[in-house]
Amino acid sequence: MTTTGRFTLPSESNFAEKTRELAELWGADAIRNSDGTQLDDAVRALGKKIYSAYFPTRAHNEWITLHMDETPQVYLLTQRVLAETDRVSIDLMEGFFAEQLTPNYDANPAKYWEVIDRTTGEVVDPERWEVHTDTHTVTVCGATPMHEYTVSFLAYIIWDPVEMYNHLTNDWGDKEHEIPFDIYHPATRRFVFDTFERWLEANPDTDVVRFTTFFYQFTLIFDPKHREKIVDWFGCSCTVSPRALDDFEERYGYRLRAEDFVDEGCYNSAWRVPGKAQRDWIDFLSGFVRENVKKLADMSHAAGKEAMMFLGDQWIGTEPYKDGFGDLGLDAVVGSIGDGTTTRMIADIKGVKYTEGRFLPYFFPDTFYEGNDPSIEAWDNWRKARRAILRSPIARMGYGGYLSLAAKFPKFVDAVTHIADEFRDIHDRTGGEPAEGELNVAILNSWGRMRSWMAYTVAHALPNKQTVSYYGILESLSGMRVNVRFVSFDDVLEHGVDDDVDVIITGGPVDTAYSGGDVWAKDPRLAETLRAWVRSGGALVGVGEPSSQWFQGRFFQLADVLGVDEERFQTLSVDKYFPPVVADHFITADVPVDPAVRAAWESAGYRIPLSGCGGGQGRVPLGGIDFGEPILNTFPVNERVTLLRADHGQVQLAVNEYGKGRGVYVSGLPYSAANARLLERILFYASRHEDRYAAYSTSNPECEVARFPESGWYCVINNTDRPQATDVTLPDGTGEHFDLEPSAIAWRRL
């Protein structure tokens, strides 16, 4: 087994001897600095490849303090203020952190700001409002009493959000705040490239320029208590300037409003159905960003260095899944490994020579403190990532932060030693080959390929109450024995469904980019195309509120395919009759149900038909499956639908024959091993490939198999921190038993 290579080690000044020791232990062939650390000559002399973090648009206050009108800007929306008379005063900065943001009074507010009556939606004429720069307020005259008013205003970003987070987390005290700058302004753009040229000359021993990242931060706004106020990992809010807005108008022929950015307070979240203005701004922005990223990459190459992009922080505008990313000339992409989904977000990027994962935990004092055991997070992070790496390899791994902190935790040091060796062993055995996929699965939403592995996300790898039931679908798929692609509703309208797709998964909450919004009412060809595809033998899996839009007396526009619709209190007078639940089915074969619970469910029976309600609902739940946040009032569209779970009077899981194809409805699936197994069975059943399911399956859902035909291996992994036993079914019907230690991996020849 190879014990050296494919590993990037963070280090810092005055830590050379321990760095050498850990580099040997972990097999590091590269050393990097991190935000707030530097590599001194002794560390650089260790003979490792040198990564140097480079921040193109911060850490030069000597420049930007002389050009404070060239910092990045953001459109902010004030609190809603109630007018009690015909005059109302609105505090611009209430709820915002004054050390991060300050209003832009340099550009004419009458041209670039908006005051809106939020009770009517009316834009208030600038003649009726006045800006008070001394108090950071706006006074509206002629207001309508009992109406709410807001101001959408431009603000300068005067403290880099990432440096601010690091500053506050590490208690950097009176360290000078790093002010970001916007290269859209020609003078600052020249400064950025001139500075980088000088830096290249001054750092001849740097092998890889690790751009962290480029020019525009994802939306990250803080409140006065230093807490996140607005966070959107895909948000373009922090990319505006009067100059850019004017250039956009000249190029696209229409002017963007402040409202196009604040979006009624939604800030164009990736969950919003993207409109023309948002898509046009992304195209405009990415064109500018990519042009200048290519210049930085070309300069790096001319100096004999690789150009690596960090997928995070100021990544906005690079769009690694948008056509043309490969033209930027970047050598590599590195990103934070939060789970299987974020691993695939990095690993599936094309157009670079290699990808690298920065694993967790980050070596910061919020994790590495006395009494905590960082090895727990390290192992959990590795187990989640490993599932995905087997399906879509990354070439390298590493960590970030203060190595001096991590070195104080021997158990963590031992964990990383094991993880690094196992990572290299996977590459040694497979040659970087991805595991074989049994099915081709397409995720269908408004964004499609441009947001591959980015769906159902607000903050990086941090699902919340509203998202967890959907995000679990991606996390399950990230390490499943299927091939995954992402397609948009527009793709289906323009090109239909690719011939090699076995299953389409679509769904999300109503009126979001993931369920589609009014596309279902606007263009009947979408439903026509998907219906025809399923009837011809395709498979459609709907999650949550798929194809949802109240139209023509129906909420799920593909309810006929899925066999399920949702009552929106419009058809209560139409009775809904539930067929009996089928407790034993191919899909639910691995679901553990307590025998006593099943007996109680069977003995309780079903509700008798009741006028105005229908009937047939189970009196007690069968359970056994975690569907996450409930989708209320779902019902079968007819009694031919096969219900697999319909607890508490609504449908959670159902299958429906539709011509030669099948539809499956599931209300939600937070990630767990049991739910990943359930989804896997759903996909094989829906596509009528039940006969292909058994080969290289495991009897224990906590264990999974990955098969590598080209290299002649298969492996069995234990995805838990506990010992597990499992039987693997082989293609000839025989089986092999495995007893696996916590987090273990076992290899066998095919």
Automatic annotation (TrEMBL):
It comes from the Bacteria. It is an enzyme of class 2 (transferase). Keywords: Glycosyltransferase, Transferase. The keyword Transferase applies. InterPro entries: Class_I_gatase-like, Glyco_hydro_b, Ig-like_fold, Lact_bio_phlase-like_N, Lacto-N-biose_phosphorylase, LBP_C, LBP_M. One of its GO terms (molecular function) is 1,3-beta-galactosyl-N-acetylhexosamine phosphorylase activity. Residues 696-747 form the Lacto-N-biose phosphorylase C-terminal domain. It holds the Pfam family LBP_C. Its EC number is 2.4.1.211. Residues 5-433 form the Lacto-N-biose phosphorylase-like N-terminal TIM barrel domain. Residues 440-690 form the Lacto-N-biose phosphorylase central domain. This is 1,3-beta-galactosyl-N-acetylhexosamine phosphorylase. It comes from Bifidobacterium amazonense.
